[in-house]
Design goal:
The chain contains six helices and no strands. By secondary structure, it is mainly alpha-helical. It has one domain (3-173). The protein binds zinc ion (2 copies). One zinc ion (ZN) binds at residues 42, 46, 106-107, 131, 141.
């Protein structure tokens, strides 16, 4: 999935821990649940067939860097601004932001591995196999991975845009 898809799902999970859980839920429980669920959501939503764009932290072109910045940072800024306008400086804002980062964590981790910042250990390989193959929809996670056919971003990925707009609408409704 693209970064804005994961950001949207994370934001929705963060929001739902306020709208769905009883008011008496302690904030620490709300935060723990929201962050864990957002982290797990990454692997689960990667199972939904989706397209990719060509992106490798190791071989980053200017155009790809810009696209990625817009995808990752742009969507995060928009959703954070929406949460700020709706809730102000509040627990909701903090949890929604934390959930977006948690929902991105597996890909951020892989990015650091691909860029050589995190060394490629046995544990890293086990995680990568789980993330990119066991949990990922048929096609590999990264277009630049050598094995297998990978699907490029296409009109069939419009559902990710729906997630993004849905997250904005849900925050707005509160
Ligand atoms: Zn992923
Ligand atoms: Zn993918």
């Amino acid at each position: 999935m693209l970064a804005f898809g994961h950001n949207s799902i994370g934001a929705l999970i963060g929001l739902s821990t306020f709208t769905l859980l009883p008011d008496s839920t302690p904030l620490t429980a709300r935060i723990s649940l929201a962050v864990c669920a957002s982290f797990i959501s990454h692997y689960l939503t990667d199972r939904i067939p989706h397209g990719h764009y060509e992106f490798s932290p190791a071989r980053l072109t200017k155009k790809m860097a810009l696209l990625f910045l817009l995808d990752f940072g742009g969507s995060m800024i928009v959703l954070t601004l929406c949460a700020y306008m709706k809730f102000g400086i509040s627990a909701q804002l903090f949890v929604i932001m934390a959930c977006m980062w948690a929902a991105q964590l597996p890909d951020i981790f892989e990015g650091f591995v691909s860029a050589g910042v995190i060394p490629f250990s046995r544990l890293v390989r086990i995680h990568r196999n789980f993330h990119f193959y066991t949990m990922h929809a048929k096609t590999p996670h990264n277009l630049l991975l050598p094995d297998g056919e990978s699907r490029k971003w296409s009109e069939s990925d419009v559902w990710q845009i729906a997630c993004f707009l849905g997250a904005i609408a849900a925050i707005w409704v509160g």
